[in-house]
Design goal:
The complex is a heterodimer of chains A (459) and B (292). By secondary structure, chain A is an all-alpha fold. Chain A contains 15 helices and two strands. In chain A, helix 7 runs antiparallel to helix 12, helix 8 crosses helix 10 and helix 12 packs antiparallel against helix 15. Chain B is of the alpha/beta class. Chain B has a single domain, classed as P-loop containing nucleotide triphosphate hydrolases (Rossmann fold, 3-Layer(aba) Sandwich). Classes of the chains: A mainly alpha (459), B alpha/beta (292).
Chain lengths: 459, 292
């Protein structure tokens, strides 16, 4: 039986179990004079039966699918008379056997392999049968057992809620473990990179040219992995973006929260949020095709030299992209400042602008700072705009009209195309990713800490 | 005025109901005019024919009242009767509420409060306000009190400012409790201290009138007693209008009491008269606790 069919059957069984559990409870209640004589509502008895029917069977099924291949592999390899010594040779043999079993033949297979392939096919058939049989037996068995043990005193709700709590915990853990998993994989790849390139060179080297020689006689591809130009490039683009986003975002938030009438607000807020919904790739070609040439021409007009891909173009457009981020976070915290504070300030004879400047903004400041830090980490991690508009040359420069490159851009270029997975060139992407991850992690941590620590407790 | 002894009077003194019919008061009784003495000779604030609308709804109906110099006037009445709205007319705090419209003549020392040429900023400096919930700014205690003098440019030098802050805190009865921690946030004080801080903040700009909107409703009895003492002391220098839900408090702190009902001013009289011999049946019903 195919696995999808099995899942469908299991689902059907679960539904039947729910129905019978429910009916059983209702019948019992009717016999003894009303639902009040049950320990829980009938729905909980239904769920209780369904959970016992479905959950263990599902776990068994998942475990079976997860381990079935590995166990069969071990069994087939171990059954061979002269099995190879090394793991990689075993893997090779295993692939061969699988290919033969699947019918992908190149010429006549060796008799030993052909035999193993037959063995494999037989094992797989058995496994499939056993899987379907065991799952269904477990489901019906436990379902029936639960129905048999039904009694009006059974506290079905408590049991169901306990299971639900575990399910919730499992979901929460899934996100946490994924994060940890990603962090660890990036970390280990980075460690491999740092075996090839010293940490000090990576962190403090001034030259970035990640071309590795494939052959010993290749020219001009020594490979230099000094990431400082990338860090400065990232910082410059981020700084330009924040120069645009923070004042404009903050001012528009103040206007929307404090001065705008209801009608303006109803119109302007959704429009700002649309700006947040524009895909970054659209911003990217806007930056590359419209803003960057404009900046180059403008610079030429005043006698400056600007490259056609510049940090300024990328930073300006990224700033525009982040405006709604800053403004909507600030708008929320400004709105959260209680009206009583405004009344207090106005009641002392403050003007509206004094109230905003001296009372509302200071009260909202922790939230605003937190929002800005989150925006910074967003800007650092932003990729598409800089890929298109900032350029690829790892220049160590302080001139915003020059083209620069950022950490994210280099990660993209290092991993695009065919790559060897063990060369420092590829592994460098992981080290850069690790740096990026740590930076944004620290920024987010500080942001959340600032927001939490300095938030006034208005009840 | 002695602050505590009227406590008993406030509770027990109201005249006994004379007949059984009076026990059921028609609370929808149309109030056509105010009984008692709404006017006085030496008035600080004169209000004539005040109507307030929130959009289409009329919240205050033709109210006329004087508040005398160095007098404490208490405004009482059931929830939603318009006392707070009326109070907020006096320093034009209603301006901040969208759709709120005020009609009628209000004068402070015979100068109009509403009018095209009136600037609300100096007006609110002359008419201070203390709110129901203590609302200290999220600044230090010192900065809270210094806020008003700073924005109005009252003190030019640091020493002057220090003096104003100390004086205001002393008059609000808070100085001894906070003098060693002026640089700590005002929001860290207890509820009663916060409210006294707000009073200090209000008197730091030397207003002539102080409006208090249920200043003790969020406080415990001990803090309430301190604020009430304070109100009594402040009367020497200021004119005070206080809205309160506590009739004992009205009896303890005020010289005259105004009873509001559904947007009408029903009765204004000497506090003692209102609580011992109310002239209007609605007032009597309210203070004897038959509704409200």
């Amino acid at each position: 039986m195919q696995t999808p069919t099995l899942f469908a059957l299991l689902l059907l069984l679960v539904l039947v179990a729910y129905g019978t559990g429910f009916t059983r409870a209702v019948t019992a209640a009717r016999g003894s004079g009303g639902l009040r004589n049950l320990a829980s509502l009938p729905g909980y008895y239904g769920l209780h039966t369904a959970l016992w029917c479905g959950l263990p069977a599902l776990l068994l099924l998942v475990a079976w699918i997860a381990f079935d291949d590995a166990i069969i592999c071990a069994m087939v390899i171990n059954s061979l008379a002269d099995k190879p010594e090394t793991i990689s040779a075993q893997n090779l043999l295993w692939t061969q056997i699988q290919n033969v079993a699947a019918g992908n033949l190149f010429g006549e297979p060796e008799p030993q392999i052909a035999a193993a392939a037959e063995h494999l096919a037989a094992l797989r058939d058995n496994s499939r049968l056993l899987k379907a049989g065991l799952t269904l037996i477990l489901a019906t068995g436990l379902g029936a057992f639960t129905l048999l043990r039904f009694s009006p005193q059974l506290r079905a709700r408590e049991k169901v809620e306990k299971v639900l709590r575990w399910v919730l915990l499992a979901c929460a853990c899934a996100a946490i473990f994924t994060t940890i998993g990603i962090l660890l994989s990036v970390l280990f790849e980075s460690l491999r990179f740092f075996q090839a390139v010293p940490v000090s060179e990576f962190l403090f080297g001034l030259h970035w040219s990640p071309q590795m020689a494939l052959r010993a006689d290749q020219v001009g591809s020594s490979g230099a992995f000094g990431a400082v130009p990338l860090f400065t490039g990232t910082m410059m683009v981020t700084a330009i973006a924040m120069f645009v986003a923070v004042p404009v975002g903050l001012m528009s938030a103040i206007y929307l929260a404090e001065y705008a009438g209801r009608r303006v607000r109803a119109f302007a807020k959704p429009v700002l949020e649309i700006l947040a919904g524009v895909p970054t790739v659209v911003y990217g070609f806007f930056a590359a095709l419209t803003v960057a040439p404009f900046i180059r021409d403008a610079a030429a007009a005043v006698g400056l030299e600007a490259s056609s891909e510049s940090a300024l173009a990328a930073g300006l457009v990224m700033g525009v992209m982040i405006i709604p981020f800053v403004s909507s976070l600030s708008d929320d915290v400004i709105n959260a400042v209680p009206q009583s504070l405004r009344d207090g300030a106005l009641g002392l004879g403050s003007t509206h602008s004094e109230t905003v400047r001296k009372v509302v903004i200071p009260a909202a400041l922790p939230g605003i700072v937190g929002g800005v830090l989150l925006a910074v980490s967003r800007a650092i991690g932003e990729t598409m705009i800089v890929v298109m508009a900032a350029g690829l040359a790892a220049n160590l420069t302080a001139n915003p009209l020059d083209s620069v490159t950022t950490v994210t851009v280099q990660i993209v270029t290092l991993l695009v195309g065919d790559q060897e997975f063990d060369s420092p060139k590829t592994l460098a992407a992981f080290a850069l990713g690790l740096m990026l991850f740590l930076t944004t992690l620290v920024l987010n941590f500080i942001a959340l800490h600032v927001v939490k620590k300095y938030r006034e407790q208005y009840d | 005025m002695n602050t505590m002894t009227l406590d008993a009077a406030g509770q027990t003194a109201p005249a006994q109901p004379e007949s059984v019919e009076k026990a059921t008061v028609d609370t929808d009784t149309r109030v056509t005019e105010t009984v008692g003495q709404p006017f006085c000779d030496d008035a600080k604030l004169r209000m004539r024919g005040i109507n307030v609308f929130y959009g289409e709804t009329q919240a205050i109906n033709d109210v006329s009242l004087d508040i005398g110099r160095n007098e404490v006037v208490a405004m009482i009445g059931p929830s939603g009767c318009g006392k707070s709205t009326f109070l907020r007319c006096i320093n034009r705090m209603n301006d901040t509420i969208e759709g709120c419209r005020v009609e009628g003549d209000l004068t402070l020392d015979d100068e109009p409060i509403y009018g095209p040429r009136v600037d609300v900023v100096p007006l609110r400096a002359r008419v201070g306000m203390v709110f129901q919930k203590p609302n200290p700014f999220p600044k230090s205690i010192y900065e809270n009190v210094a806020y008003g003098p700073k924005i109005h440019g009252i003190a030019s030098r640091r020493a002057e400012l220090d003096e104003i802050v100390e004086n205001s805190l002393r008059r609000a009865g808070l100085w001894n409790e906070v003098k060693d921690r002026l640089d700590q946030p005002g929001t860290g004080l207890s509820g009663g201290q916060q409210q006294r801080l707000c009073i200090a903040r209000a008197i730091a700009v030397s207003p002539e009138v102080i409006l208090m909107d249920e200043p003790c409703s969020a406080l415990d009895p001990i803090a309430t007693a301190r604020i009430e003492e304070l109100i009594d002391e402040l009367r020497e220098n200021y004119t005070i209008a206080i809205v309160t839900h506590s009739m004992q408090q009205a009896a303890r702190v005020s010289q005259r009491t105004a009873y509001f009902h559904l947007g009408h001013l029903v009765e204004v009289n000497d506090t003692e008269t209102v609580f011992t011999n109310p002239q209007h049946e609605l007032t009597e019903a309210y203070i004897t606790g038959r509704f409200g």
